[in-house]
């Protein structure tokens, strides 16, 4: 668990050639434009699974709208079969900036559930199944099978973009799925006989923690999925989905 004080007051970054790596606050700012999704009730309280043994609750942020939609659909079907469908009647999917999700994933926090029962909670960020499969093909160690791992795909050269302020060198784009990286490569090198370099993968939390330690040398910029951006824009345009609440939750049954 990374203390939030360290996020607010990151150590100074060491210079890395002409492109100094970002600070932790820089990374969080760049993550703000990346949407993720959470299942919430009509008031914005997220649904969280309670472990009856530990009395701890776990919530989820999904990097794909389809992932959130599938989990919600499966939960509603299970609830109907179990005779408790009313629990999910008010459930909907809201969008949350990924910097918020990352901050919340770094610590445990107490939330109030039904009848104002207070439970310690954690949250995990969940990538899509295709993204996990692609990451395991690149890194067969099994690391990306671990819950909470978020693969970021990149190539070392060929897709660099200018820095935020136009000075200090270029930034390295990292993608939340491989197909978006390949799409950008094909667009940049259309009509040219330029093969795609070896695609690499890094974990979002590993990158962030390396930045906090001052050992990250990659000046990255995050490339959101067009599908996720479209889904988030549609959610926001409806203006009926409540904002995500950090201090509340809807407790649902989990491990016994």
Structural notes for this entry:
With 256 residues, the protein is of the alpha/beta class. The chain is 32% helix and 23% strand. It is built from eight helices and twelve strands. The protein has helices at 4-8, 24-31, 65-82, 98-105, 129-138, 178-188, 204-213, 226-238, and strands at 35-40, 47-50, 57-62, 92-97, 109-112, 118-126, 151-154, 161-162, 170-175, 200-203, 220-223, 250-253. The chain has a five-stranded mixed β-sheet with strand order 5-6-3-2-12. A three-stranded mixed β-sheet has the order 8-9-11. A two-stranded antiparallel ribbon has the order 1-4. A hairpin with a 7-residue loop joins β8 (161-162) and β9. The longest helix is centred in the N-terminal third of the chain and has 18 residues, at 65-82. It is globular. Mean pLDDT is 88; it is low at 1-18.
